[in-house]
Design goal:
TIM Barrel, 8-stranded parallel barrel, 17% strand, IolE/XylAMocC-like, isomerase activity, Xyl_isomerase-like_sf, isomerase, TAT_signal
Length: 286
């Protein structure tokens, strides 16, 4: 296992090295990262995406450019790049720009909902963006209202866990216990890094909550404890082969969105290494 892990890490590092090239590398005749990352895309059992918070330090245009360099097309759109109160015209302009860049916005979020008004805004925003799912973190006292909106809009709500510091949803079970008897369109977005810091074995969580698992935020952490820090995927505490096997066994149909929170002002090398490692693990599991 250790030799295979080293091989996958070295392969990912080789891919990561190419991201030091300018973002306009393809236009300048230089190789694009997607040549490395997409060669076996059709064989991959799980679609890979990016959680928009990864690009929190960059505007929409630069985020699109980075996704194109990475060869990833699925995006969980964060309001950093398109405000929740944006007009329909502004939304249409942004979504057209994303489509022209080859980006598929498959969901929006994470959106925090502390009031009924915030819930209303989130669902109206998702409708304007034309997506059928919200990654959200609603307060307990607005869950009933959120369920009403799920039924009204026929838009799924995937509730995101945020680790041991989170008073609402530290781990997946804290989400599941609140939604298990609610509308089947309310489920989980398991953030595997935060779940691991909360003491959860994520492969077991995938199996346990498979019927309500809508989305995944994929990351790694230095240690499986509260003090764990974001790190490149494959270098930390999470057993990714076990996770991928669990996803295959349960027939997971959602997106695996990379959320990279280390070196956020210069994330490309770390994201590329992370994607390379994760795709390598998926290929090994085929």
């Amino acid at each position: 296992m250790s030799s295979r892990r080293s091989f996958l890490q070295n392969t990912a590092l080789g891919i990561a090295g190419s991201v030091t090239l300018p973002l306009l590398g393809k236009a300048a005749g230089l190789p694009s990262i997607d040549d490395n990352l997409n060669s076996a895309q059709d064989a991959e059992p799980l679609p890979v995406g990016v959680a928009g918070y990864t690009f929190a330090k960059f505007d929409l245009d630069k985020s699109i450019a980075m996704m194109k360099r990475l060869g990833v097309s699925n995006l969980s759109l964060k309001e950093i790049h398109l405000p929740l109160n944006a007009s329909q015209e502004a939304v249409n302009t942004a979504m057209a720009k994303l489509r022209e860049g080859g980006i598929n916005v498959y969901t929006v979020g994470v959106i925090y909902m502390k009031t009924k008004e915030a819930v209303d805004q989130a669902f109206a925003y998702a409708k304007k963006c034309g997506v059928n799912m919200i990654i959200g973190a609603p307060s307990y006292d607005v869950l009933d209202h959120a369920e009403e909106k799920v039924k009204e809009y026929d838009i799924r709500l995937a509730i995101h866990n945020h680790g041991p510091e989170d008073a609402l949803y530290p781990g997946p079970k804290d989400v599941y216990d609140r939604i298990k008897d609610r509308d089947a369109r309310i489920g989980l977005c398991i953030d595997i890094g935060h779940a691991t810091r909360a003491g959860v074995a994520v492969d077991k969580a995938v199996k346990e909550y498979k019927k309500r698992l809508f989305d995944l935020h994929i990351k790694d952490v230095s240690v499986a404890a509260k003090e764990g820090k974001a790190i490149e995927i494959g270098r930390g505490a999470i057993n990714f082969p076990a996770l991928v096997k669990a996803l295959k066994k349960t027939g997971y149909k959602g997106v695996c969105s990379i959320e990279f929170e280390k070196d956020m002002t210069d994330p490309m090398p770390g994201i590329a290494e992370s994607i390379g490692y994760f795709k390598g693990v998926m290929k090994a599991a085929l």
